[in-house]
C-alpha cells in the first residue's frame, strides 16, 4: 500500500499515550470529514483511534510511561518500537506523518526518519511545554519537523523564533462533549438516588501513575467519608489500565463504579459534586463540565527531584497556568497526601463560595481556549491537508534545514 499518487490522502498518525489517543481520534474523524471520507490511515494509537478505524501497529500500553525513572526499565522495548515504526513509515510511504504529544517516543521516530534521509512532511500536534522547562527543545524540534500544531494561543512564538512554522488550532477539549453529560442517566443506570452525593475520582491513564495514586486516593476517600458522610465514587478509566484500576478500588469506600468510555465519564461528571484527579488533560474536561476539582500527582522520587530542579513554573495545572493564578488546588509530590486531598475535596463539596469561584474561573478558561469557535480538530485537519496539498504541488514544506 502506498500513499503517494493516490487521490485519497494517506496519513500515518502516532499517539504514544491515552491523552494523545483522544486527540488522535478526534483528528482522524475531522480528517475523514474534510477529505469527504476518502482517507487512509495507519499508525499507533488506542481505543479512541481504533473507533475511527485505526489498527494500531503496537499496543499503547507498551508506550504509555511517564517519568525518567519509570522510562528507564522500558527503554529497550520503547527503542525497539521506535525502530519498527520508522521502518513501517518508510515501507508504507504515507503522504505525511502526524505525531501527537508523547515527545519521548514520537520525536525519536522523527529524528530517525530524518537521519535516514526521509523528506515526507512531519507534523507534530501538541507543543512541548518549553515555557515550563527545557527551552532548548524548541530548537531541537525545528530540525526534524515541518510544522507544529499548538493547543494554546501563547505557544507559537516560542517555536517560530527558531524557524519552526506553527499554527494555533485551539484546544480539542472544547469539542469533547464533557459539558454534555447526563447526570440523571448516570444515576438511573447505577441505581443512585437523586439526593445521594457522587464524587468522580480519576487516578490517571498510565500504569505507573495509577499504581502510585490509587492507594493515596483510596486513603483520602476514607478520610473524606468521616468528614462529609457517605457518597458514591465514580471512577472513569481507560482500557490499558482498566484491570489495575478495577482491582485497586475494590476496598475503597463509596462502592466505586468503574467506568469505560467518554459518554459514561461525562455522565459521571454531570452527576458529581466534585472530583479528585491525576494531573493531566482531564483537568480541562472537568473545567468544561464545570466540576470543581482538586489535582494530585506523584512520580518516582528520582523523577520528582529532577523535575523540581528544571521546572521554570511552580504550577502544572493548565487551569491555573491559563488564568495566571491559583484556582485549582495542586497537590504534587510530597504534598500529595490523603489528608490534604480529603481536606481540599471537602471544601469543594461544602463551600458554595469556593464552588462559585471555580465555576467562574473555568468559564474564563474556556473563553480563552476559543469555546464557540471553529472546531480545533477541524482546524488541525485543514492545516494537515493543506501541507499535503502543498507537497503534492511541489512546493517546499520543510521550514528549517538540519
Pick out its properties.
402 residues, Rossmann fold, 2 domains, six-stranded parallel β-sheet, 46% helix, 14% strand, disordered N terminus
Walk me through this protein's architecture.
This protein has 402 residues and is of the alpha/beta class. 46% of the residues lie in helices and 14% in strands. It contains 17 helices and twelve strands. The strands form two sheets. It has a six-stranded parallel β-sheet with strand order 2-1-3-4-5-6, sandwiched between helices. A six-stranded parallel β-sheet has the order 9-8-7-10-11-12, with helices on both faces. The radius of gyration is 21 Å and the shape is elongated.
Largest sheet: number of strands, sense, barrel closure: 6 strands, parallel
Derived from helix and strand composition plus strand pairing, the structural class reads: alpha/beta
Low-confidence regions: 1-5, 65-70
Helical proportion? 40-55%
Strand portion, in percent?
Answer: 5-15%
What is the rounded distance between the termini? 30 Å
H and E string: EHEHHHEHEHEHEHEHEHEHEHEHHEHHH
Tell me the CATH topology of the largest domain: Rossmann fold
The CATH homologous superfamily of the largest domain is termed: Glycogen Phosphorylase B
CATH-level-2 architecture of the largest domain? 3-Layer(aba) Sandwich
The overall pLDDT average reads: 88
Question: So what's the CATH class of the largest domain?
Answer: Alpha Beta
Total number of helices: 17
DSSP strand tally: 12
Outline type: elongated
